[in-house]
Q: What sequence folds into this?
């Protein structure tokens, strides 16, 4: 006998007709809960913020109370420290300003000294040559020193006897104009050259003579000799440079200077022997120069140097005459172009 299992009936799903409305209702409930949570969070944040502001105000009040409670002795200490600091800052500012001013003064002095040094080594206005003393070459001293000084000494004596005639016969430079360049005469190739100059200074005869004597020794860069010494004999090397042509030459020189101090005049006479041995970096020989120079210092007649209303009784005239003569050991050198250039350079 077979058992028959009864079949179960499937239940049909029931359709909810209010499904959409229920979903919106659940959504509204959810949003209300979230709004309540946010409202609670906002209240908590406000509470925290108010507590924080309260703590800040309390802390500031406590700080003010603590500051007001500082003893007066500490206030005095702080005030003194502040005063010292301000004083030190003012002193630093003053020292810095003083340092800047002194620095400007130092720079000005440096510029002035440098300018003077440059002017000492460059030619004066109106000139283009620079001359300075150099060491003596021994071979030239041994060769010519023995007989040159004798000839120069004789020339000095002759020049002294003729000084009045030489200066008076050639006229004078204008007395009212101080010339930077002397008045040249001659200048013919192979012939002597003469240079004349005269100027009037408002000093006495003795003052003018002493000033000229000091100027001579300053030019030589030597110490002043004994005041009773009236004769100077010297040998030297001479280096000349022409800045316009960049030409240079080195020569050997000997000279004798003699001073004559008289009642109404002072006379300086010197004769020089100049022998070049290097010109344009090449050796030269066979030519030398003889220089005869006169300086006549005497009181000037007030009637010739001043107007009728004002006459300077202390005026002194300085008359100068230079005579430079080239000599050639070989007559052919007289017309040699290089020798002519050398003579023009030395003259």
A:
């Amino acid at each position: 006998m077979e058992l028959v299992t009864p079949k179960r009936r499937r239940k049909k799903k029931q359709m909810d007709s209010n499904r959409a409305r229920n979903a919106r209702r659940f959504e509204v409930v959810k949003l209300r809960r979230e709004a309540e949570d946010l409202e609670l969070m906002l209240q908590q944040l406000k509470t925290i913020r108010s507590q924080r502001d309260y703590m800040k105000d309390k802390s500031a009040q406590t700080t003010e109370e603590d500051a007001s409670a500082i003893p007066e002795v500490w206030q005095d200490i702080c005030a003194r420290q502040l005063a010292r600091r301000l004083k030190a800052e003012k002193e630093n500012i003053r020292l810095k300003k003083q340092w800047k001013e002194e620095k400007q003064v130092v720079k000005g002095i440096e510029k002035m000294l440098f300018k003077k040094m440059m002017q000492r080594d460059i030619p004066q206005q109106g000139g283009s040559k620079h001359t300075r003393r150099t060491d003596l070459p021994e071979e030239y001293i041994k060769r010519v020193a023995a007989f040159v000084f004798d000839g120069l000494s004789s020339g000095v004596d002759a020049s002294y006897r003729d000084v009045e005639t030489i200066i008076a016969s050639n006229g004078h430079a204008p007395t009212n104009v101080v010339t930077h360049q002397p008045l040249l005469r001659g200048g013919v190739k192979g012939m002597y050259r003469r240079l004349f100059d005269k100027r009037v200074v408002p000093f006495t005869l003795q003052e003018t003579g002493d000033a000229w004597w000091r100027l001579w020794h300053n030019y030589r860069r030597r110490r002043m000799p004994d005041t009773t010494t009236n004769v100077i004999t010297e040998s030297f090397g001479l280096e000349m440079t022409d800045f316009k042509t960049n030409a240079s030459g080195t020569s050997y020189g000997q000279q004798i200077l003699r001073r004559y101090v008289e009642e109404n005049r002072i006379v300086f006479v010197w004769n020089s022997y100049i022998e070049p041995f290097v010109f344009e970096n090449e050796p030269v020989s066979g030519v030398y120069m003889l220089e005869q120079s006169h300086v006549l210092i005497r009181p000037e007649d007030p009637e010739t140097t001043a107007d009728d209303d004002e006459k300077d009784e202390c005026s002194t005239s300085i008359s100068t005459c230079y005579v430079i003569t080239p000599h050639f050991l070989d007559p052919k050198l007289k017309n040699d172009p290089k020798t002519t250039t050398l003579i023009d350079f030395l003259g």
User: Anything to note?
Assistant: Residues 171-189 have pLDDT under 50 and may be disordered. The two ends are 170 Å apart (CA to CA). The first helix runs from residue 19 to 68. The chain has six helices and nine strands.
